[in-house]
Design goal:
Order of helices and strands: HHH
Strand content: under 5%
Shape: elongated
Structural class: mainly alpha
Low-confidence stretches: none
Distance between the termini: 30 Å
């Protein structure tokens, strides 16, 4: 996070929205959807790769920082 007077290397949502001709709220919504899908896919793969429920939960917490 940049301090006051510094410029971020990452564009803000308003800049992204302007670049793609959409509303900033659309940027927020698209990113929320992408994060949700990423999490779903990761959990699906973890479920497939782990042998037990306990192992699945430990791996999910390690990778995503969430307790299931």
């Amino acid at each position: 996070m940049p301090r006051q007077g510094e410029v971020s290397a990452f564009p803000v949502y308003d800049e992204v929205a302007q670049r793609f001709g959409i509303k900033p709220t659309d940027v927020t919504n698209y990113l929320a959807y992408a994060r949700k899908e990423f999490r779903r896919i990761v959990l699906e793969e973890l479920r497939r790769m782990t042998a037990t429920e306990d192992e699945f939960r430990r791996e999910a917490q390690t990778l995503l920082g969430v307790k299931l």
